[in-house]
Amino acid sequence: MFERFTKDAREVVKGAVEHVEGVRAGTVDPEHLLLALLDREGSRASFALAALGLGERKESVRRGLEEARRRAGLSRAETDALAGLGIDVSEVVARVEETHGVGAMSGDRADKGWWAGRSSFSRGAKDVLEAALRVAVARRDRHIGDEHILLALTARPGVPAEVLADRGVTYASVIRVLYGGGEAKAG
């Protein structure tokens, strides 16, 4: 499948691996793909994000991802579902952090023996890349670009889509900017 990726899409995948190596996590998740997209400039996805008002608000997205990571990667929908069962995730996080330190539920492996091999891709990250292929095929695009990865992230339930939607970046708004010929406004 990677032979169909454009240079920009390949750079996103490489950037996601670099983010993982930077925190020594070992597994590339959808969040890392989003972080790598935020790092890009001069690509179709970066154009769409800028057109939707995220150009100057990238740090807001990074903070949103960090907040979710502190909750062990749970989305608000998952947190709400647990609350319906009587489990207060913020209370669980507070107790764990009280005992083990801030960020203990984030899954960071900086204090553990880290395997120095290649980073693997989580099922979620693989799903995003497969969805990017499906988006490209559905649009009859010959290659998978970083814009297809962005569209896949917005279409797939989870933390990246939630964080982007909170900032007005949805599948529909990205489609409008990339293919609709009109201006899309965040919000």
From TrEMBL:
The keyword Protease applies. Keywords: ATP-binding, Hydrolase, Nucleotide-binding, Protease, Repeat. Pfam families: Clp_N. GO terms for biological process: proteolysis. One of its GO terms (molecular function) is peptidase activity. Gene3D superfamilies: Clp, N-terminal domain. SUPFAM superfamilies: Double Clp-N motif (SSF81923). Residues 2-187 form the Clp R domain. This is ATP-dependent Clp protease ATP-binding subunit ClpA. It comes from Streptomyces griseoloalbus.
